[in-house]
Amino acid sequence: MTRADVIVVGAGAAGMLAATRAAERGKHVILLEKNRKAGVKILMSGGTRCNLTHACDRRGIADAFGKQGRFLHSPLAAMGPEQVVDLFNANGVATKVEATGKVFPQSDRAIDVQRAMLRMLGAAGVDLHLAEPVEAIERSDDADVGFLIRTSRNAYRTSAVIITSGGQSYPGCGTTGDGYAWAKGLGHRIVPTRPALTPLLSDAAWVRELQGVTLPDTQVAIGIAGAKPASRQRGPLLLTHFGLSGPVAMDLSRIVTERPDADRWVATCDFAPDRSEESLQDELASGGSKQVATIVNKLAPQRLADALLAAARTPGDRRLAELAKPERRRVIDALKRRQIPITGTQGFKKAEVTAGGVDLRDVDSRTMQSRHTPGLYFAGEVLDLDGPIGGYNFQAAFSTGWLAGESV
Fold this sequence. Notes:
By secondary structure, this protein is of the alpha+beta class. It has helices at residues 13-24, 40-48, 58-64, 73-78, 81-90, 110-124, 178-185, 205-209, 246-257, 277-284, 292-299, 302-311, 325-336, 392-407; strands spanning 2-9, 29-32, 53-54, 95-97, 102-105, 127-129, 134-139, 147-151, 155-163, 190-196, 200-201, 214-224, 231-239, 243-245, 265-270, 338-342, 344-345, 353-358, 363-364, 369-370, 376-378. Helix 2 runs antiparallel to helix 6 (110-124). The longest helix is centred in the C-terminal third of the chain and has 16 residues, at 392-407. The radius of gyration is 25 Å and the shape is elongated.
């Protein structure tokens, strides 16, 4: 049986930073990872570019998480977005801020982030064990030992455990929810989990026919058909062979997954969010020989423009002077209020984040230590923390991981 001061379970963003910080403080740290490589989800994130954080202050990060953001005040005080950028810059990863506020490696390579974190582990002296899944975490009867951990290969004794095993999103990365059972067995409540930041499904044939159309700026409202929209987001949208993807659709997906019993979801799209209906009405009513397609093509890509005009039952070559008032109304409705039926989401398989997890009330946010089991710590996605797309969730993982390593 192997002994260590600290055992970290899960070598993702939170786990690698927690292990690094604990080892830097002189602890003998073993980091256990079920996959054959560390940071698998890092490599896949952000379209393999890895959105490290968001270019805002600590309050901006916390506010993005809504009510959950209060839990992040202490972790963010320990490791804020500026400190994340400084840490990776110091470890050879130059960063850049995009127009959206997202912070990426200048190289646009997630592998550079993963390699930097592996270098941090090595420099700190962390003992990294790959392809060694944990099978059980139990309290020890020996007060000096604290915990017994059994894996597929070995058994370990330690006085402190940090669980950073992730949630259930992208289960192909090994994040299959193992941490919830361990936490529950050690006295913690688990908030029911559901996918967040996952694409939306639609059976609308016209949407599927437009697969590959990317819209840089669309406002989308989602809600039950006939009811007031439950949420509204603005940003990039991608039309696909299965429905809707891109940041807007993925941010709205948590509204759908929190009500799995509901049906008849509708996404109402404003494809010209910078144009008021009055200005469009004036332009369409201006008369003259200009074709209506000329107006619509300025506001939407060609394929989408054709589909919107078809929905408005208005030929693209119709001259503005020939448009009757009902036709102008239909064109504006197509541009500003086009509805897309939503049949569900792609679920955990394509979710970037898990909503739900270890109940935040059971964890001391000042240290990330369990309120029920001394010596047990949590960090990262295993916690009931889920933020919007844009680097917020990685920041939460880095902040909670760093604080756990600082506190253990």
